[in-house]
Amino acid sequence: MTEMKPVTEATAVKAPVLPDAQTVTDVKHWTESLFSFRVTRPASLRFRSGEFVMIGLLGDNGKPLLRAYSIASPSWDEELEFYSIKVQDGPLTSKLQHIKPGDQIILRPKPVGTLVHDALLPGKRLWFFATGTGFAPFASLLREPQTYEDYDEVIITHTCREVAELEYGKQLIENIRQDELLTELIGEGFADKIRYYPTTTREQSPKMGRITNLLKDGTVFADLGIEGGIKPETDRAMVCGSLAFNLDIKEILEEFGLREGANSEPKEFVIEKAFVG
Ligand SMILES: Cc1cc2nc3c(=O)[nH]c(=O)nc-3n(C[C@H](O)[C@H](O)[C@H](O)COP(=O)(O)OP(=O)(O)OC[C@H]3O[C@@H](n4cnc5c(N)ncnc54)[C@H](O)[C@@H]3O)c2cc1C
Ligand SMILES: NC(=O)c1ccc[n+]([C@@H]2O[C@H](COP(=O)([O-])OP(=O)(O)OC[C@H]3O[C@@H](n4cnc5c(N)ncnc54)[C@H](OP(=O)(O)O)[C@@H]3O)[C@@H](O)[C@H]2O)c1
Fold it and tell me: Which part of the chain is the FAD-binding FR-type domain (predicted)?
């Protein structure tokens, strides 16, 4: 039998205390490479829908291992939601993908970012262009009342390789359409302004192809019944994807006469990277 010893201050194993710790409340795995999770929100954290923060875990060396993450929940939500890739040999996500409710993560409460309403001049139609986890900031903005107060129409395009990679966004939009709290916050019929345009590039789906090609050949406008394409007088856009995607969309938007804005200088479109590399 193992000898029992009283637990004293000296013998007790102390749970490691994370700096800026928040508790995981929910985790959902969508595919082998995608998951979403919710954590408690620090009482002092204020952010604008569309912004990102640094989150992470303690690394093996005992130091925080942090990465930029868009907050996928809206600014009014009492918790914080994130939508994440699982990079199998990624320093952070090889570990983060195993979190469970009750676990703690580190969250630095300093939100920043350009995908915010303040960085755009007033307009009538708002485009969200996302690939992969680039959907995350739009998951926030689609649940933000100001999006519907400021615009008559909100078009969200999401391009992924495979159909299953669209599921988080698809379900989120279905839930928005039925959400009573959002209807109370924003007003009856607000969700009729949303136009969802999902496309895949490597697996058969109702709409195949890169959104960039579908914009260039006019398919998007024909499908959505938009005459004359994107116009600088009425259309505003937010873009979030890989660097290559962002550059390609930027070129297309500039050809339509839109200019890139920033927090300090609002214009017709804004861009943020969904990841580096
Ligand atoms: C402003 C900003 C916001 C971000 N928001 C999110 C977010 O909301 N959700 C999220 O999952 N990631 C987001 N990222 C990426 C995130 O910061 C990390 O890179 C990611 O969590 C992987 O971390 P890692 O340490 O496991 O691997 P890393 O060493 O950071 O990345 C390894 C490689 O994996 C690939 N990769 C990394 N992230 C992604 C991704 N999201 N999609 C596809 N390939 C990727 C890249 O090729 C990268 O070089 C964001 C990045 C930036 C700059
Ligand atoms: N998701 C996966 O199944 C998978 C599998 C193996 C490796 N990876 C690696 O994981 C990383 C991220 O993969 P990901 O699929 O999340 O992101 P991604 O490679 O950026 O692709 C996401 C979607 O955006 C499209 N896209 C990419 N560049 C574009 C551009 N310049 N213009 C228009 N559309 C563009 C892709 O179309 P295309 O398919 O035409 O490129 C794809 O449908 C990459 O480094 C990738 O090599 C991912």
Answer: 17-118
